[in-house]
Amino acid sequence: MIDLTDRLIQTPTLLKAPNGNARWHPGRRALQVLCGVLLVVLPLTNGLRLDVRRDEFYFAWHRMAAHDLYLLFWVAMLGVWGLVAVSFLYGRLWCGWVCPQTLASDFADSLRARLDRRFRVRKMAPPELGAGRAFFVSRSLWAAIILAMAYGTGLTLACYWLAPATVWRGATHPLADPAAAATVYGLAAVIAADMLWLRRKFCSHACPYGALMSLLADKNTLTVRYLDERDDECIHCRKCETDCPMGIDIKQGVGQFACIGCGECVDACNDVLGRQGKAGLIEYRYGTEPERVTRRLPLSRRLGLWDARRVAVVATWLACLGIALWSLLGSAPLSASVTNQGAITRDTHGVRDTYLLTLNNGTPDTHGYTVTVRGLPGVRVEPSAPISVIGRAGRTLPMTLIGPASLPPDTRYHVQLDIRAGRDARTLTTIFYAP
């Protein structure tokens, strides 16, 4: 069953509009919206997709063929080392600020709270006051919207493995493409189950990232910390607990497994004590030393680069980024070279010079390249038919330039070879000899 009976376990004031003194909440929401937009835009615009049917890989809006999948390794390394770097430097900020699971949970909880306010669902209201009907309507509408969102998200995620047209055909005509339909509806079912039942439970009980953080965290990792040295200033309002989406008490110690580093408790404490003219008792901090929160820290320390290990991790990530970009952008769509072979003949049919032509196709598609010559009237090229070169490959073949027999002996001419396939073109200059 959908958890319709949780009126006593409402996600509280976290879901209301952030208070005027909030510092982190608006930035976190903006980043979550940006990540959600990217999650949708990337596969739909061919920004990122591993197309399992076409044996193609799209990265950064560039298409690669099957024999380019070595780049997938570097993209995977880019993601892995990026996550490791974020974990080393900023702890659980990935969980609270970027993770799609948190985004889905925040959306589901926020929507539920808004609908409860709209239908005036009251906690612990007796049934004779009509609260049961309002509660049922609120939860039913909530479940319907979540199912629609899960369907849309399933469509989007399927586009990371299949072309959007294929996904849409499978979703609208399941019998025409059962595999695509199973992908869409299978993903939608998993997402619906997650948003209706799991949400925060996955973060606190099943997410492997929390276990990873327990291995990577050290004294220099950024954490949300309650300042025990100022414990006597706490007024025990418990707003930090009620605003926490994970339902933990940050005063119980730093590094709690369920803490996702969202900073809601930081804003809550700043709000309450700020009204009394005091600084909050909860803050983001590298380690335990009070001086680490000062704005006078060097830029490298403010960025989290506290030791050589962190610098090495960031350097490794930058190296993976450089290799991925070099692999992606380093090859030209078309490169070519021509070498004179020195075999020159003259007869009544004309003058023949032989060359060795090399063509390199830097695109993922097979192209037919046409070669034309200019710079000397009457000269033609053999072979005259387009030269086919498969994607991401090169081809070397003999080529002959044939000039008119009337050319004066012992002369040389600079000629240009125009090589073209669609919008890709290259011009080479060589010498034509007339013996």
Structure report:
It contains 13 helices and 13 strands. It is α+β, with helices and mostly antiparallel strands and 435 residues long. The chain has 3 domains: 7-215, no CATH class; 216-300, no CATH class; 334-434, Immunoglobulin-like (Sandwich), CATH 2.60.40.10. The strands form 4 sheets. A 4-stranded antiparallel β-sheet has the order 6-7-11-9, with no helix packed on it. Helix 2 runs antiparallel to helix 13, helix 4 packs antiparallel against helix 5 and helix 6 (164-172) packs across helix 7. The protein is elongated, with a radius of gyration of 32 Å.
Question: In angstroms, what separates the terminal alpha carbons?
Answer: 92 Å
Give the C-alpha Rg: 32 Å
Low-confidence parts lasting 5 or more residues at pLDDT below 50?
1-20
Note the run of SSEs as H and E: HEEEHHHHHHHHEHHEHHEEEEEEEE
Classify the oligomer: single chain
Mean pLDDT: 85
Q: Treating each run of at least 4 consecutive H or I residues as one helix, how many helices?
A: 13
Got a strand count? Answer: 13
Task: Please estimate the helix content.
Answer: 40-55%
